[in-house]
Amino acid sequence: MGKTTPNTRTRLRDKNAPKIPMNAYSRYFKANLSNSRREGKNTREVSSKIAKQWSTMTAEEKKPYFDEYNQEKEVYYERMKEYKETEQYKEFQKIKLEKKKRARRKSRLSVDKEECSSTSNLYVHPPNEIKIFSQEFLDYNKKQENTLKTLRNKKNNITNECNNIYEHFVFTNEQLKYLNESIKEKEEYYKELELFERKTLNDVLDALDKANLLELLKIKKQSITLEEILKIFTDSQTNKEIFNKIRQSFKGLHFDFSQILFEETK
């Protein structure tokens, strides 16, 4: 056996817990393992061969293995449910929780050690004995002062970067607000435009209906659009009598649609 390193994690196993049943493939693998070994192949070749056989099997051929697994799985769940009520299970959970806590403490300690080792290089450790106001004392203070200046500069740089990021965030947030307001305004505008277009279409159709022109122009109220009506009017300009009737029917509208028609057909 190889040497265990400090980072090696051993998984706790509850020896008293019910045994987890093998899945369908594991059952097939176990059943065919001895036959494949007789052929003198190594473990990798045997595993590869059995895996290929399993992948080519039909659902009907795999069914017995799945049936056995499902039956044992139901029994396992029942036994596990009963086992969770025992004192042995509760004791194991306590041990498991305590191990997690120890692992977390070790992790925090290792992080603290790394932080200490990384920051210790910033400071000059004082000698064991320093005479006050001696040259050695003054040199030491000067080094410490330089270290503090370096740290202050770093702090100021980080503060400036944070301020820049915050200003950028505020600016971006304002831009987003402006965009949202613009989107809302455009949505309201398009809604009003849609309502206006719908009202215009209804008014035009009503005017044509009163003038008995719907059947003449073969217009169906339910499926026609304003653009299609304009096209029909444009095509009808060859017949001056119908065209004049159309223009006359638009005189009572809430806007001068006849002027629009005239511009379209000019």
From TrEMBL:
Residues 18-84 form the HMG box domain. Gene3D superfamilies: High mobility group box domain (1.10.30.10). One of its GO terms (cellular component) is nucleus. GO terms for molecular function: DNA binding. Residues 1-21 are annotated as: Disordered. Residues 18-84 bind DNA. GO terms for biological process: regulation of gene expression. Pfam families: HMG_box. Keywords: Coiled coil, DNA-binding, Nucleus. Transmembrane segments: none annotated. Residues 141-199 form a coiled coil. PANTHER family: HIGH MOBILITY GROUP PROTEIN 2 (PTHR46040). This is HMG box domain-containing protein.
